[in-house]
Records
---
Amino acid sequence: MTKKQIKSKEELEFFGKKLVDQVDKGKNPEIKFTLRNLSNIVFDKKSETLKLGDKTGSRSFFNVAHSKKFLQTVEVASIIKKELLESGKHEHLRGIFYMSKRTIPGTNVNIVDDQIESDKSIEDLEVITGLSREQMHVSANKMGSMIGNVILEDSGDTIDCSKLGKGGYSIPSITDELEFKKIKAKYVLYMEKASTFERLAEDKFWDKNDAIIITSQGQTTRGIRRLLQRISEEENLPIYVLVDNDPWGYYIYSVIKYGSIALAFASERLTIPNVKFIGISCDDIIKYDLKRQLIKFTDQDRTRLKQITDYEWFRNNKDWQRQFKMMKYNDSKVEIQALSSKGISFISDIYLVNKIKNKEFLD
Amino acid sequence: MTKKQIKSKEELEFFGKKLVDQVDKGKNPEIKFTLRNLSNIVFDKKSETLKLGDKTGSRSFFNVAHSKKFLQTVEVASIIKKELLESGKHEHLRGIFYMSKRTIPGTNVNIVDDQIESDKSIEDLEVITGLSREQMHVSANKMGSMIGNVILEDSGDTIDCSKLGKGGYSIPSITDELEFKKIKAKYVLYMEKASTFERLAEDKFWDKNDAIIITSQGQTTRGIRRLLQRISEEENLPIYVLVDNDPWGYYIYSVIKYGSIALAFASERLTIPNVKFIGISCDDIIKYDLKRQLIKFTDQDRTRLKQITDYEWFRNNKDWQRQFKMMKYNDSKVEIQALSSKGISFISDIYLVNKIKNKEFLD
């Protein structure tokens, strides 16, 4: 076992021992933890992230309303300790569900019936123990690719991400265990679209501009958020986010910077306060004459824009409010790929180079 | 330009020259091609694939109903020749749409208004010229990962897919241009789920069993189908498909083997007649006692199963009809991840090893 595994295992054992102690003392076993529900999610002005507040709850074994969830949490903790940490293996959320889906001995009652139950138990354990899901060896989506002057170690292999053709390195679901051996770059460019990534890979944009390029497809996975955060913190590199000019693209940036309600309890390990938005901005539409490429908003787009405009962290930000106002006026969106209308490599040769040279970022 | 690019360029030039010839002779320019609509899609018993029939159609310039599509086809051909093949660059379907979305000079009419129009033009050109979309440098989804004893060349880089940790090689959207330098494996295992891929990667299944493991997420992309077909044909390796025990999983296998209606015109370049289905079969549910892991069918599942049962290529296949009958009886599905309930590495150590040793395949 690695030191990290031992630490995680000890945290889970400590959780278990406290329960055994209570039993030994003839008490009703009780688990205390910070509440994760909406009423306890706050926007912390100091760290500028979504976080959990101070409200705590407890779950006790001899309480009809609590006992099943209590059991689920203990069962999942036991699976994580025995099957994952002690073997050094990792398992996906869906696999943990199947591993915990067994009957309570002597009954016909399942410990869990639905994945949401084991998922919630894992989140409980994150809050109770302070361990991240990744530290407990529980993974989720494998998604995304990376190319750039990054030499990393993954499971004993030394991988040079500048020598992987146009395909690149396939990012694993858990990126906490990757070790950066050497990084030579001025910044990281993260984009929501794999097609943009392929354009930049073919143009060797990363090589010409000393950049690391990373993509997922749509919403950023937890693994990629951790990867970006680690490069930002450990290597002190700026992270630029390239998304569509629409509320959905802007929200991708918002989650990377400020966190999300669903993962507010994990903000510290996932958010990147100094990440910057590189485009597509509403100013770009004018500057690069993309008006002909506008796509009319749907009602869904309009509702989403309204929601984002009202977010606490955007509400008093003049630059962002200006963007939202322009977007509302346009009542339309522009996709990253619209830049192709200006020339196949316009994005690599002109757009991104200018943006970075002139520091045209939104913060 | 590479030889391949020159050949593709010549094909497109030939297409253009024929039109110019007609104009020079004072004729109404006309494009003839095999029809791609449903009435001309047949299941070819000899090749056992979905193919286009003999029906042809034509499109002429001086025909009000044809002229716009005629123009679109010529415009897209011109973009592909000038912007892609002559520069050696590649562009995604969405990018081609934006590149062709301009007004007809002197009018307010757009050449294309919607991506479906440029997409259809590209399909037209595939049928007219005999070139694949990939040969015309047009790409679509980048998806999936590969690990195994494969040394390949991608854009000048030599990549050893056995030394890429647990992440692996990120498969590009176009795999036609990859060059296999050395492959040392007994078979390829293709799976629909990236989580299964991560399990096998962590267990070094590929190393212990001399296998190449490949995954996408859900439906198989054209790039991965080409990759599998090339390994099958060029390296003469068996391809095994691992999917969920449900109509959707079975359909993934069906497409890889027999083709699909949407891409019937490209079957020759995509289907793999000797691919084998490794699981999850309905027999596995009994053999490996997965009954507790069954998930009840929805109405959608039932309808889909009925459709697949009636497919021409399955209709007289006793083994498959037996599967469909059992599945209908179960009225439930089993996911690959359900194998985790038997132990975290049960799939790597027992299930797949047994299946391959005993040649428990469906054909």
---
Amino acid sequence: MTTSVGANDLRARRVGVDTYQEPVIYMHADCSVCRSEGFTAQSRVNVSLDGRSIDATLNVVHGEWLQTGEAGLSEVAWRRLGAAEGVAVHLSHAAPRASFGHVRAKLYGHELQERQLEDVVADIAGNRYTDIQLSAFLTACTGNRLDLDETVALTRAMVEAGQRLRWPYSMVMDKHCVGGLPGNRTTPLIVAIVAASGLPIPKTSSRAITSPAGTADTMATLTRVDLDMADMRDVVEQENGCLVWGGAVDLSPADDVLIRVERALDIDSDAQLVASVLSKKIAAGATHAIIDMPVGPTAKIRDDGAADSLARLLTDVGEHLGLHVSVIVSDGKQPVGRGIGPALEARDVLSVLQDDQQAPDDLANRAIELAGRILEIGGAAQEGCGSDAAAQILASGKAWQKFQAICTAQGGLREPPTARHLHIVPADREGCIEVIDNRRLARVAKLAGAPGVAAAGIELHARLGARVSEGQPLFSIHSDSKGELAYALTYLNHQESIFEVVESE
Amino acid sequence: MTTSVGANDLRARRVGVDTYQEPVIYMHADCSVCRSEGFTAQSRVNVSLDGRSIDATLNVVHGEWLQTGEAGLSEVAWRRLGAAEGVAVHLSHAAPRASFGHVRAKLYGHELQERQLEDVVADIAGNRYTDIQLSAFLTACTGNRLDLDETVALTRAMVEAGQRLRWPYSMVMDKHCVGGLPGNRTTPLIVAIVAASGLPIPKTSSRAITSPAGTADTMATLTRVDLDMADMRDVVEQENGCLVWGGAVDLSPADDVLIRVERALDIDSDAQLVASVLSKKIAAGATHAIIDMPVGPTAKIRDDGAADSLARLLTDVGEHLGLHVSVIVSDGKQPVGRGIGPALEARDVLSVLQDDQQAPDDLANRAIELAGRILEIGGAAQEGCGSDAAAQILASGKAWQKFQAICTAQGGLREPPTARHLHIVPADREGCIEVIDNRRLARVAKLAGAPGVAAAGIELHARLGARVSEGQPLFSIHSDSKGELAYALTYLNHQESIFEVVESE
């Protein structure tokens, strides 16, 4: 037996276990609190300390590495509680989550009311759902099971569960890409062009979810991105735009919780996607958003029918919530630019801004089209003249100046890192490149270390439609460790060709 | 750095953590395998040893209680691998479960084929789905989303994923209650009556899913229930019947995996319910099954419409799979008998068998009706005379003799335990009891510790229609720990009255 600090109190101990986002508490099987409360493995336990409290999943320890008077806390539990070694934490049964009754009702086909979705989202944002419950909620929303009203209510609830930025401008521009296309790093270019035109574009971006790089990952190789709200506001007031990581400003926190389980399930329902994207935009204070939607057989959106219905839902939900949404469908058949991975994409961005001769045209042209549309919507260019205006801002060097100014305001512009190992993958025959598999290419980049290792990824040396000779480089793998390089190559060797080279007859 | 036993090999270490059914592997953050394989927290890792292999969820350890060369294994991972301290285990990325693609297809509205359901069920029975995936599968089947063909296919797949009992009798009787009515513990009585009549009734029962007690929980307070197949067969050959826990004989093992997550979600879809019930019956070798279906506003089945559609599905699926199913709808407006909870229900069963003056009539009458129907179906009584025959077997003491004989054959009859704490809940006014809320009453019993704590639960002192005076006991809460008692009382104090007492004018 141990001396408890009080009935149902145990001494906090940091056991240093990373359970990702699900808080776990470790208690010894012989612990008096375990016994008196009837806790068993997987019990949900409320842990409180100085007015803060979390619900954690119990793992019961029979080994000797934990004492009976100790409450071992996983890393996320430790952080959320703000615990210190040895302080007394109070334990009780976690209250059942009443809002899960609404999820159950949805499973049985009932329509959810706004108030019910607010309760559900508040509990999700507060990390009070277990993984099993999160999975059930996501599944209940998949396959067109949320109607328009429910999707609007879900989006609004997600906005209201977090912080909300307000700007002193009548129009606030934003931009999003529904993803699935490696290297499509237009956002830094668009922000530079739009901000240079004088329109406000306070851009918050996410880190990669399933891709080799997110805009926040790429920008982090060039400048500081973890600005808090006050710093972000200063940058925007000074430069009309910013390029920061959204995670530091707590916009739509429920989204970050849901995304983790969505990734594990590998599902992505339209309703969830719309609520995820639009809640971030609305919380960031946007009034107008351009959505880039690449369509292609190996992109996230595979055909025009899927693109149409998603575009309609984005526009309709936006309209209900006072956000003007324009969707631009783009070609999603192959990667954009040359680099795939945080630093390699940053180099593409810099080369376009600096009007380098080697700059990838496709990336520049996409950015010009999207930025041009924003200029038209914002009244900085006449209808039909937006692309020309955007191209002019880019060619004149004003966008590059603005980009440098934004990076300086965020904490200084720096050089992206370079990888230590490089491996060139050549064509195994002469012919014409007819297909590039985006998904498997992204997988190789991730195995090489992206986005965790900023310098890692893929550099493309040839594009769709190009004629290549045998042995000509198709792409290079960049990696910082030999182990990761070997891992990417092993995967590559077990795949059909990622580039389909068809011999001419 | 540590010396690895081989590339991607680590030394197994039992860290003594009970994570219930989900295997967890603990690896140090600085471990070479973690790094070279790119494993991060929550990665799914395949762990193999001597040809056995399991998929486990990774928790990354930053603390010093685990060394870099060690693979810490949770209790369930240790057991399933058959590991020994210090042996080398081999680690690799867990293969994605191809069958989960079928679950995803179902989420998007596709009908599942028999072969696909077989793949899903085989992976579930083999513990190869994560909790998140199990939750998604259950959710995908909820709300009438499986049609008749799919339900038949699911049931068959669940039968085939486990062992199957075969009996040398032309008719094998079985019985099930769809539940939701606390205290409705007729099964031990029915088995005793039917076996005493000479008809074979080899009964396997489950532990509680969402209720305060299952038949296996109740019987476990009276005798040994974890018999293996050979022992069970011996008991049945000798006594015509048995009352064992189904979990020890590996009938429909996927059901046991699913039930754990169903319990956490507190959902119970018609298709899953039918597949669960009938797969157990068919695997147990039954040819005829009686299903007791209590209907009431706070029972599991709330109205006649729901009862009809569930009864039809049970009968239809049974017919497709060669099992004759008879459904008997019963009154589900209030609990049955006096006790709610394993030991308290066992006492009710004993009092009926012993023809005690205090024995609850309602429990006896229900058992007589259901057993009577089985006697008629089995030809042990003429049509219309089953209840009289059953009542006669009970009154004569033959059922009590048979029950004792079965318990003796299973390992000996014992006395159910008694709780340490008792709290009486009195009527707060004079009047007539007009409504009893089964669900909330069951919840109080569970908060008091049932079914985990066998002695815990509720004892009823008054029934529907009774007149009570102010202060007269309505029910008592039995609990083995003060913490659990306090928890039940806290819940009770936050509820409307569970007994609705209406004052006379």
